[in-house]
Write a structure and sequence with these properties.
Layout (H helix, E strand, L loop, with lengths): L21 E2 L12 H12 L7 E3 L4 H18 L4 E3 L3 E4 L5 E3 L7 H6 L5 E8 L2 E8 L16 H5 L5 H15 L6 E9 L10 H18 L4 H4 L1 E11 L6 E11 L7 H13 L2 H6 L6 H12 L1
Antiparallel strand pairs: 1-8, 2-7, 3-4, 4-5, 6-7, 6-10, 8-9, 9-10
The protein binds protoporphyrin IX containing FE.
């Protein structure tokens, strides 16, 4: 949890689905948040033993996993040296005192990686000119979908999101295929949810929709509580081509702040009002915001008045 949002993608977002990829400096690839120690303990507990709900991999992803782990270790010691010390074989985390054996033969490299950084990672490789998910470690999931994509493509990943494949599917396939080594890119998704935790509970999609309905009942009585009842959840997604194996590393870092964090930010209040006011009911329902939208809009309008 932060005092002010680390990223505000809603400021520049449009109401329609967008590709929204921007160039990214490699120094910005990974992030260490203010609750790093507590968060990593929860993330490690969730991923321990690679439960199939959060972790899956194909044998042929091993080379890409090892390359990704090497690149992450090098990036951490270069750009987060205040927190991480070590080398390609082992890392120490100064915040929680944890030690990570990067060469542990009993564990897959992606599994080891999941316990080191706050980012989740998904690896894509091409198969018959299609980009296929070959490994996924996804503790943040808000739908359970990503891990179930192992062995499948982006169309499958986006199938449950109403109209996304029809509107943007071919462009997404193209841009994913064209990410080049040395030219990483970043994009964002965001939504408003009553679930504060960066790690959603099991049955995440249904839990989110149910929590939205429960929050809507509370806010129907008093929409002024929206600022403390709801959370702004921002997903930062990075895309980096691995130069040796040619696999694509898709990284996800999730941020969660109380909606009240933007109370004094006129630009953010206006942006949320514009976007939530124009999203289709289908899209709001999928994101668990259909029930809460009315209360959120009223709360925003009062702050803007
Ligand atoms: C250029 C690349 C991508 C674009 C433009 C894109 C776009 C989007 C958009 C617009 C949404 C809907 C969010 C909303 O309603 O506001 C979405 C959701 C989603 N995307 Fe992507 N996406 C991309 C890459 C990926 C990748 C690499 C994966 C991983 C396999 C992925 C998996 C998902 C999933 C699972 C959802 C549903 C969200 C949920 O219910 O958890 N996306 N994506």
């Amino acid at each position: 949890m932060t005092q002010s949002p680390r990223h505000r993608p809603y400021l520049t977002a449009g109401a329609a689905f967008e590709i929204g990829l921007q160039p990214m400096q490699t120094a910005q690839w990974l992030d260490v948040g203010p609750d790093h120690g507590v968060f990593m303990a929860a993330k490690r507990a969730r991923l321990a033993g690679c439960p199939p709900l959060y972790y899956r991999s194909l044998d042929r992803s091993r080379g890409a996993q090892a390359e990704l782990l090497r690149l992450v270790a090098a990036n951490l010691t270069a750009h987060h040296a205040d927190v991480f010390t070590g080398d390609a074989r082992s890392l120490n985390d100064r915040i929680d005192g944890s030690h990570h054996d990067l060469a542990d033969p009993a564990r897959e490299p992606l599994d080891v990686l999941g316990g080191v950084v706050e980012e989740d990672f998904v690896l894509f490789d091409s198969e018959e000119r299609r980009d296929i998910v070959v490994a996924a470690s996804n503790a943040y999931t808000s739908s359970g979908r990503i891990v179930s994509c192992v062995g499948r493509d982006m169309r499958f990943a986006h199938d449950p999101v109403p109209n996304l494949n029809d509107d943007l599917g071919s462009r997404i396939d193209r841009v994913i295929g064209h990410v080049q080594a040395g030219k990483p890119v970043v994009r964002f998704n965001w939504f408003v949810t009553p679930i504060a935790s960066r790690l959603f509970p099991e049955g995440s999609h249904d839990a989110n929709v149910a929590a939205g309905s429960a929050a809507a009942r509370l806010l129907a009585a008093d929409h002024r509580k929206a600022g403390q009842t709801l959370w702004l959840r921002v997903e930062r997604q990075t895309f980096l081509r691995l130069p040796e194996t040619g696999a694509l590393a898709f990284g996800i870092h999730t941020y969660s702040d109380p909606l009240s964090v933007i109370s004094g930010e006129r630009d953010s209040l206006m942006a949320l009002h514009r976007l939530l006011g124009s999203y289709s009911e289908e899209r709001l329902a999928y994101g668990g915001m259909l029930a809460t939208r009315g209360a959120i809009l009223k709360w925003l309008e009062e702050r803007l008045a």
